UniProtKB/TrEMBL annotation:
Domain spans labelled Mycothiol-dependent maleylpyruvate isomerase metal-binding: 21-158
rRNA-binding found in the keyword field: no
Domain Bacterial SCP orthologue: 168-260
UniProt KW rRNA processing keyword: no
Keywords: Isomerase, Pyruvate
UniProt-recorded name of the protein: Maleylpyruvate isomerase family mycothiol-dependent enzyme
NCBIfam families on file: maleylpyruvate isomerase family mycothiol-dependent enzyme
GO molecular function, one term: isomerase activity
Source organism: Streptomyces morookaense (Streptoverticillium morookaense)
Pfam families assigned to the protein according to its UniProt record, in alphabetical order: MDMPI_N, SCP_3
Length: 262
């Protein structure tokens, strides 16, 4: 039988701080952008930098809106189920980003959402149920998905601008662990060990289970490459060819499990 997956618990205060810190990194990057840079294309189909920098704070604004609304009656989704639900949210996110970008200044939007987020999360309990579109989630669980949104889209923004934007360590760690746990939940087993130092190690894929010594099938990569693979920003073969991923063992090709979003 596949090994039982440990359910990870999250610290909502630390995650809220990580969200705030990553928003600030984005704000710093956005503050110096001119109209020409806001019009640059991104790797997200049909979006310019303007739509992207509008969407980024809106992903956090969902927390504000649902904390201000009545609590959901029951939990409907766990963090590892969330990446699969993102595809059904894409059309709505696109519509809202375009509409908001047309009549809102990016910095005004960022500042307003960040300030309200800090106020609301400072007093909200970790187990508060949020009635979000993907399915009702606990606040602490949903905050880890906000870290994932921010980290993935910060990387998209850096790519579009051709610059480096810092990643908050806690946000990067939470995103790495969430996506590693998602892989383990989606492809349970113990035949392949996936290592993303220094943040995550999981076993996955059905087959002979490793119990001691050096695992026969090992995948190892850095956090940002792992996140790009999970988000479909880079292909498995491309990452292996670039030596951003090492895969040893005849079962170590996990390309069929990727990407994890959608």
């Amino acid at each position: 039988m596949p090994p039982t997956q440990r359910v990870r618990k999250y610290d909502s205060a630390k995650l809220a701080a990580a969200v705030t810190a990553q928003l600030q990194h984005v704000r710093t990057a956005v503050a110096g952008l001119g109209e020409g840079q806001l019009a640059l294309p991104t790797r997200l189909p049909g979006w310019t930098v303007r739509e992207l920098v509008t969407h980024i704070p809106l992903t956090v604004g969902v927390v504000n809106r649902t904390l201000e609304a009545p609590a959901a009656p029951a939990r409907e989704m766990t963090p590892v189920e969330w990446p699969s639900a993102t595809a059904q949210l894409a059309a709505h996110a696109d519509e809202v980003a375009r509409k908001t970008a047309a009549d809102t200044k990016p910095l005004d939007l960022l500042d307003g959402i960040a300030a309200r987020f800090a106020e609301l999360t400072a007093v909200a309990p970790a187990d508060r149920l949020l009635a979000v579109r993907s399915g009702a989630m606990r606040l602490d669980d949903f905050l880890v998905t906000r870290c994932a949104e921010l980290v993935v889209h910060t990387d998209d923004l850096a790519d579009a601008l051709g610059t480096e934007i810092p990643f908050d360590r806690q946000a990067l760690a939470a995103t790495t662990r969430l996506l590693a746990d998602t892989l383990a939940a989606r492809a349970p087993g113990g035949s392949v060990e996936v290592r993303v130092p220094p943040f995550a190690v999981v076993q996955c894929i059905e087959g002979p289970r490793h119990t001691r010594g050096t695992p026969p099938n090992v995948v190892e990569t850095d956090p940002l490459t792992w996140i790009r693979l999970a988000a479909g920003r880079v292909a498995w073969a491309e990452a292996v060819a670039a030596a951003s991923v090492t895969a040893s063992g005849e079962r170590a090709d996990i390309s069929e499990q990727l990407p994890l979003f959608g």
